[in-house]
Amino acid sequence: xxxxxxxxxxxxxxxxxxxxxxxxxxxxxxxxxxxxxxxxxxxxxxxxxxxxxxxxxxxxxxxxxxxxxxxxxxxxxxxxxxxxxxxxxxxxxxxxxxxxxxxxxxxxxxxxxxxxxxxxxxxxxxxxxxxxxxxxxxxxxxxxxxxxxxxxxxx
Length: 155
Prior knowledge:
By secondary structure, this protein is of the alpha/beta class.
């Protein structure tokens, strides 16, 4: 059982399990293909940091990129960039490729692309590589209490 699942149980979230064959560097394209769902509903969990090295969790549609300029502007910092994988692992307590927004090692601000809330159902990492959990967006928002932002850009 992952920390993410412990958090979901603690908050009485009704989720669905979606294991799949993980592929190194496959990302949400692989999970969407394996689960036969729209990549837009597969949500990637990114660990980023601002110019002062303060970490944050950013959730984005699988078929979109984060505009770090728009994110920096939205949160009032000079810049935002992805953490190096080993740094992301230390902040989250998860291995890159298996990072869940639920049950991170340290509390960090969580920013969610606003349009994720409009999905009917989403799939997000359950705390290990090759494992997503599905739920209505309202449940993710209820448990995480994120800040909704407009930071998506097309590939």
